[in-house]
Amino acid sequence: MKRLLSFLILLSIATKVAANPSNPVPSGCCWSILAPTTITQSGNYRLANDIAGGLIIAADDVQIDCENKVIDGGTIGISVGAFNNVIIKNGTVRNAITNGIEATNAVNIEILQMNLESNAVGLSLTNVQDGKIENCTARENTFAGFWLQDSSRNIFKQCLAIDNGQGGTSSAYGFLSDNGRSNIFEQCNAQSTITTQTGEEFVAAGFALTGSEICTKIIECESFDNTTSTVGFAIPYGILLTYTFTAFVPATNVSHGNSVQAVEWAPNGKFLAIGGLNGTNAADVRVYAFDPDTKTLTLLASFDHGANILSVSWSPDGNFLAIGGVSGTGAVEVRVFRFDQSAGTLTSVATFAHAATVNSVDWSPDGKFLAIGGAEAVTIEIRVLRFNPTAGTLTSVADVSYGVAPANVVLSVNWSPDGNFLGAGGSGATDQVRVYAFNPNDLSTVTALTQVAMATHGNTVNSVNWSPNGKFLAIGGTAGTGTFRARIFEFNAIAPALTNIDDVNYLATVFSVNWSPDGKFLAFGGAGVDSIAAFGFSIQQQATTAAPVASQVLAANVLSVNWGPDGQFFASGQVTGVGNEIRVFDAIAFESTKNILKNNIVYCNVGNECPSGIGISGSSFANAIIGNTAYENTINYEFVTNVYNSGINGSPSILLNVSIPPF
After folding, report:
1. Exposed, middle or buried by CB within 10 Å (0-12, 13-18, 19+), for 650?
2. Could you tell me if 449 and 435 are in contact, meaning their C-beta atoms sit under 8 angstroms apart?
3. What's the CA gap between 599 and 630, in Å, rounded?
4. Which stretch of 152-166, 393-407, 559-573 has the lowest confidence by average pLDDT?
5. What pLDDT is recorded for position 441?
6. What is the distance between the alpha carbons of residues 620 and 370, in angstroms, rounded to a whole number?
7. β-strands 172-178, 144-149 pairing
8. Mean pLDDT of 173-197
9. Which one, of 156, 132, 214, lies nearest residue 181 by Cα?
10. In terms of Cα–Cα distance, which of 521, 528, 527 is closest to 545?
11. Helix (H) / strand (E) containing 3
12. Mean pLDDT of the chain
């Protein structure tokens, strides 16, 4: 009787399979899948052969062993609905119109040793929790290798994303997580992500955290050879954390007791230096500690130079602060202080007498030289001083005449990011904007500093500032040719020349200009109705926005503006009499916060237009970005403040990120 019953059951199953060959068939301890099908019962399944089309999993506790077979084509290769405890392993899914594997509202899903090839997205997880994805490879998918949306507590380990973006029509990603929480990417590699789109709104990112992603980890991963079109403006990133910027929101303000002429954030963004007219307690230079959590400024140190301070500049390592101004105590216009970050103290270690007012000081990117610009001193308005921190000396190693005094006065100097050029602006009948080449290997005062380019603004230039990529020089001043107060010049470093590419629509005298850390916004401080204004800048269009992206009405002349190194905060200094003279604003907002980027390696991410490749872009204030290594990217770190540079710093710590200069 038992044999007869078994025979009848098998006959029934065979009849059903014959009627519908897509139904799984029993095969020992599991069910064999012969064709595209919907799985509605728990159990173990195997892929008996390659199939054309997709699988739908609509049950809990399902395990599919693809046994190195291929699922080819269809709208979705494998689709998992709102079910628990699904395991998919050991196979290849390719050529799906949308997603190779797609899971929505699933819990405890495991994807193991799967190859996901030539789909729109290799693996897509939407509102998936507690997933485990290990030893999977996503290759040549047109949008993303791995894409998480609104998903939490998923672990990706030893996964590869290779050549994704091929043939796509948008940005491209190796690993992308959007609006999720507590996901982990560990020992994963993103290689050769590419977008062929040419617009600057497109990116190719090995890893990207977007939207409100929070508490996610990217650890011990590599991201390299991510590229963009050689004829476009899209930017490749090793690791990208996105942001928004729509407004300057007041965060805090303090009183100096007099007009503030200069403000500048320390390279780590933890301190703010200001200089101005003699203020409260006879101090004309002050250093404040800034707490980004409570958004408060706390006075640490001050110094009485004995005369007005017109400019302040931090050394690249943040250990020294230079000031320039009117001749003060000891008949010197320039001082360098050693700043003890632990004790919060300023100690004067070097001085220099220019013999005329110094309006601007700026450290070279390697911290070895200090450029100064000011009024004429025996036909010299611009000097480069070599700083010896051990001996405590400033020595003039190069100088140049800006023009004939008293009409020609230098009001602003600024080093290019590579330290090869010095921009200068001031007053004069013609050619108020100038660029000088600097040769540190020939420290002759005759040949070390050579004028290589000039341009006319048509009136006094109060401020000059290089873009982070060194390709553009922004200037601001009084109304010049065409009544414009601000301009952007493109600089050709190969055959040195300045070309006026944009006249900015800021409608009053400009006292200060400053690029955002990524060069996508240009901020102005001035005398206008909008005392502070930031315009968006398009590299592709080579123009600023017609109206400010963000502005603030302070009802007082703003004499100095400066973006914090991570872009989240923005400082201004203004004349006395209308509110407090020192102000800090919330600026760029990184929506992805409290994430950890640790011990990753990013390298060789390149494109066409500067900045042609970014290693890691993200706020190190809003996230823990530590112990990473970046090299052979056009810009190794963007918005990251805790960076060790072997050419500047001493020894790295585990909390610093290593930036290796080009080989």
Report:
1. exposed
2. no
3. 10
4. 393-407
5. 82
6. 28
7. parallel
8. 97
9. 214
10. 521
11. helix 2-19
12. 91
Distance CA 268, CA 655 (A): 12
Which residue, chain included where needed, has tokens 């476009």?
232
395: which residues sit within 8 A by CB, 6+ positions away?
A: 385, 386, 388
DSSP state of 14: H
Chain-centroid distance of CA 399 in Å reads 35
Radius of gyration of the chain (CA): 30
CA distance 330 to 623: 45
Low-confidence winner among 18-32, 48-62, 614-628 (lowest mean pLDDT)? 18-32
| From 327-331, 458-462, 614-618, the region with the lowest mean pLDDT | 327-331
pLDDT at 30 over 70: yes
Residue with tokens 């380990």: 157
pLDDT of residue 520: 95
Phi, psi of 571 (to 5 degrees): -115, 150
> Residue 406 — pLDDT band, cuts 50, 70, 90?
low
H-helix or E-strand spanning residue 5 = helix 2-19
567 φ/ψ angles, rounded to the nearest 5 degrees: 75, -10
Instruction: Please classify residue 369 by burial: count the beta carbons closer than 10 Å to its beta carbon, then call 0-12 exposed, 13-18 middle and 19+ buried.
Output: buried
Amino acid at 563: W
pLDDT at position 7: 39
Q: What angle do CA 21, 26, 32 make, to 5 degrees?
A: 60
Check pLDDT > 60 for residue 16: no
Residue 382: partners with Cβ closer than 8 Å, 6 or more residues away: 371, 372, 373, 399, 400, 401, 402, 410, 413, 422, 424, 436, 449
Q: Please determine, for residue 405, whether its predicted confidence score (pLDDT) is greater than 70.
A: no
Q: Are 151 and 131 in contact (CB under 8 A)?
A: yes
State percent of the chain over pLDDT 90: 77
105 close to 127: Cβ distance less than 8 angstroms: yes
The half-sphere exposure of 121 on its side-chain side, counting CA atoms within 13 A, is: 23
Lookup: tokens for 570 = 């923005």
Amino acid at 337: F
pLDDT at residue number 609: 57
Say if CB 163 and CB 139 are below 8 A apart: yes
